[in-house]
Amino acid sequence: MVETKRGKLILIEGLDRTGKTTQCELISKRNNYKYYKFPNRETPIGKIINSYLSQQNYDGKTLSDQSIHLLFSSNRWELQEEMKKNLLDGKNIMLDRYVYSGVAYSLAKGIEGMDYEWCFGCDRGLVKPDLTIFLINNGNADNDGFGDEIYEKKEIQAKVRQVFETIFTEKEKKEYIKDHFKQLDVTGLGIEEVYEKVESFVKEEANKDSTNFIYF
Ligand code: DGP
Ligand code: NA
Ligand code: NA
């Protein structure tokens, strides 16, 4: 019996407007990867998340910070079985945001009691990416480019970035980061220039043997 080789799970993380979605879509189109984006705003939970983020039909009081945090996590859990099934079927997956966004955006709020362990807690057990690519863009410091959603503000983005960097340089370093993390500075680069770099990371990972699943 021939065993199917497990597919790779590759994640792109970063602040808003760093080009994550564009790159994930290009990789999935050109290399036949499945594409998952979190939050997935189409599920029942995703619809609540969408109204929170866009602040439409939402009075700002219905959901506490803890509650929205758990909904973001739940949104990842909603699709977990399907993702694992695809991977076991040998399909490669590109992920647009995942656990690290979950931790970073909530930690950045600085809410008492919502520390790193608390924020990570509900995501423990999700399958870990084989590779995480963290996009950094130093070009939009003035942030005229941000949209209207709840976190798309200069001060919030600066805090989120700090938290991302802490996670990737301290928290996750020991067990995981060395082989599974690439930081990519995309400042001033065009879409195809970024793509070339992202694709080379993706191909390098795709050529490695697949291990058993690792978990958060
Ligand atoms: P996007 O659709 O990629 O622009 O993401 C929507 C916004 O939600 C963006 O500002 C990042 C934020 N976000 C994504 N995932 C999470 C999460 O798990 N928790 C929190 N609090 N925010 C998140
Ligand atoms: Na956004
Ligand atoms: Na995006």
TrEMBL record:
It holds the Pfam family Thymidylate_kin. GO terms for biological process: dTDP biosynthetic process; dTTP biosynthetic process; dUDP biosynthetic process. Gene3D superfamilies: P-loop containing nucleotide triphosphate hydrolases. The keyword Nucleotide-binding applies. It comes from the Eukaryota. The keyword Hydrolase applies. It is an enzyme of class 2 (transferase). Its EC number is 2.7.4.9. Keywords: ATP-binding, Hydrolase, Kinase, Nucleotide biosynthesis, Nucleotide-binding, Transferase. Residues 12-174 form the Thymidylate kinase-like domain. GO terms for molecular function: ATP binding; dTMP kinase activity; hydrolase activity; nucleoside diphosphate kinase activity. InterPro entries: P-loop_NTPase (IPR027417), Thymidylate_kin-like_dom (IPR039430), Thymidylate_kinase (IPR018094). GO terms for cellular component: cytosol; nucleus. Belongs to the thymidylate kinase family. This is dTMP kinase.
